[in-house]
Design goal:
heterodimer; A: mainly beta; 11 strands; globular; B: mainly beta; 9 strands; 0% helix
Chain lengths: 114, 112
């Protein structure tokens, strides 16, 4: 596809379960970002990938959160032992390298922990 | 902490120009000003960005003051579909890795 694709679009999980969220960036985009947006709040940075490496993980809220990227393309964000406060929309963005290039966002995955 | 400050809300009449201000008094020389908007339940949509010169595209115009400490996004002829949250953000490369830091944004309501 032409844009950033995220799946699933919605996920309901029970507290304590693990979840995986997927991001397919725009082809050729080496930079990939994950953000989280809680209800009524702004976007909170989680992690940045440059190719397959993650030089900035400063936004991950706890060690229950991890992410990986393979082949310089698809990325997965994993949340272990989910808690109710993890409920949010998780957004992925991709861009070419550098600050003078647009970053494009996917539609997000709405995670609800019950 | 976000490095930009925006009014929490603004109103605009349909067909009129919407002028959304943003303060970024601590902007660094290598930081670009980016604007995004987010319509309910959708991912943020890129609008426009600039470094120091004014920019215009099919969606909007961006006016950056000479000292770069503030900017204004202009939607020349607002429509009801422009009702959204508008985010002004800064973006730098290097050790900032191009990440966008979002504040609370401005809720723009366009009314008939």
């Amino acid at each position: 596809g032409a844009g950033v694709s995220q799946s699933p679009s919605n996920k309901v999980t029970e507290k304590g379960k693990d979840v995986e969220l997927r991001c397919d960036p725009i082809s050729g985009h080496t930079a990939l970002y994950w953000y989280r947006q809680s209800l009524g709040q702004g976007l909170e940075f989680l992690i940045y990938f440059q190719g397959n490496s993650a030089p900035d993980k400063s936004g991950l809220p706890s060690d229950r959160f991890s992410a990986e990227r393979t082949g310089g393309s698809v990325s997965t964000l994993t949340i272990q032992r989910t808690q109710q406060e993890d409920s949010a929309v998780y957004l992925c963005a991709s861009s070419l390298e550098g600050a003078n290039t647009e970053a494009f966002f996917g539609q997000g995955t709405r995670l609800t922990v019950v | 902490d976000a490095k930009t400050t925006q009014p929490p809300s603004m109103d605009c009449a349909e067909g009129r120009a919407a002028n959304l201000p943003c303060n970024h008094s601590t902007i660094s020389g290598n930081e670009y000003v980016y604007w995004y908007r987010q319509i309910h339940s959708q991912g943020p949509q890129y609008i426009i960005h600039g470094l120091k010169n004014n920019e215009t595209n099919e969606m909007a115009s961006l006016i950056i003051t000479e000292d770069r400490k503030s900017s204004t996004l202009i939607l020349p002829h607002a429509t009801l579909r422009d009702t959204a949250v508008y985010y002004c953000t800064l973006r730098a490369g290097g050790t900032s890795y191009g990440k966008l830091t979002f504040g609370q944004g401005t809720i723009l309501t366009v009314h008939p």
